[in-house]
Design brief:
Layout: H1 10-32, H2 38-53, H3 60-70, H4 72-99, H5 109-131, H6 136-149, H7 151-170, H8 172-201, H9 225-245, H10 249-254
Helix pairs in contact: 1-2, 1-3, 1-8, 2-3, 2-4, 2-5, 2-8, 4-5, 5-6, 7-8
Length: 255
C-alpha cells in the first residue's frame, strides 16, 4: 500500500498529471477572459503541458503565470496579428457568399488555403514562444517551416480543431462545460506529444532545468534547419581556407 502512494508509482504519476491538467485548464480559462490575452495563455499552457511530458511535476500556478508574464508582450503581438489576418479572411469569405453572384463563389476556395496557413502558424507559434528565445519574425517563419515539415501532425491538429468546433456546434452546453473543466488542457497535452517529438527531431534539447527566464534550452537554438545548415557549410568552407593558409592552429582556437 505504501508503494501505491510513492511518487514514482504509475497511478500516482497519472493522477498527478490529471490534477495538473485541471489546474492549468482553470488558469487558461481565467486568463483568456479578456480575449486579447489568449496568445499569452496559449503560450503558458503549452509550457506546462510539455513540462508534464518531460516527467516533471511543475508548480502549475507559479510556473503558468511566470510564463504568462515573461512572454506576454510577444505572445500578444503574434496573437493580434494572426487574429486580425483570420478575421480579414473570414470577412472576405462572408462577402463572397453574400455580395457576389453564385457563379463567383469559387473565389473563396483559395482563401481557405490561406486560413489553413494561418492556423498552421498559430498551432506552432505559441509553443515555440514558450520554449525558445526568438523574435517575432523567426517565430512566424519557423512556425510555417515546422508545419510544412510535419504535415501529418499539422493535419492532426487541424482535425482536432475542426472536430471540436463541429461537436461544440451540435452540443454547445455539454462541450463547453467539459472544455472549461479540463478540455483545453487535454487537447494541448495531446498536441504536446507531437510538439515535443517535433522539437527534438529539429535538434532542440528540452531539459527539466529552469533558468531565471523560464527557458529550457541548453543553448540558443534556431529551428530554421536550412539556415543552420547553410551557416555550418560557410563555417566549414572558411575553416578549410584558413587551414590551407596556416598551420591549422587558428581553426583549433576558433573551435
Amino acid at each position: 500500500m505504501a508503494s501505491f502512494f510513492s511518487q514514482k508509482h504509475p497511478a500516482t504519476i497519472f493522477l498527478t498529471a490529471v490534477c495538473n491538467l485541471i489546474f492549468v485548464n482553470f488558469c487558461f480559462v481565467i486568463t483568456c477572459i479578456p480575449i486579447i490575452t489568449i496568445g499569452a495563455s496559449l503560450t503558458a499552457m503549452n509550457r506546462i503541458t510539455i513540462k508534464i511530458l518531460l516527467g516533471e511535476n511543475p508548480p502549475v500556478f507559479s510556473e503558468y503565470f511566470r510564463s504568462f508574464k515573461n512572454n506576454f508582450k510577444q505572445s500578444t503581438v503574434i496573437w493580434l496579428i494572426l487574429a486580425a489576418i483570420t478575421g480579414f479572411f473570414v470577412w472576405e469569405i462572408y462577402l463572397i457568399n453574400t455580395a457576389l453572384p453564385p457563379e463567383y463563389t469559387w473565389t473563396q476556395y483559395p482563401i481557405y488555403f490561406l486560413l489553413l496557413a494561418v492556423f498552421s502558424c498559430m498551432a506552432y507559434a505559441f509553443p515555440i514562444i514558450a520554449w525558445f528565445d526568438e523574435n517575432n519574425k523567426q517565430v512566424i517563419k519557423n512556425s510555417l517551416l515546422l508545419s510544412l515539415a510535419n504535415i501529418p501532425s499539422t493535419i492532426f491538429f487541424a482535425i482536432i480543431t475542426l472536430a471540436l468546433g463541429l461537436v461544440t456546434y451540435v452540443y454547445p452546453v455539454l462541450v463547453l462545460s467539459l472544455m472549461c473543466f479540463m478540455g483545453f488542457a487535454l487537447v494541448a497535452f495531446m498536441e504536446s506529444v507531437f510538439l515535443k517529438r517535433i522539437f527534438e527531431k529539429a535538434g532542440a534539447k528540452l531539459t527539466s532545468d529552469d533558468d531565471e527566464e523560464g527557458d529550457v534550452l541548453d543553448e540558443e537554438y534556431q529551428l530554421d534547419e536550412a539556415e543552420k545548415d547553410s551557416e555550418e557549410d560557410e563555417d566549414e568552407t572558411e575553416a578549410a581556407e584558413d587551414e590551407g593558409s596556416s598551420d591549422g592552429k587558428e581553426p583549433e582556437e576558433a573551435e
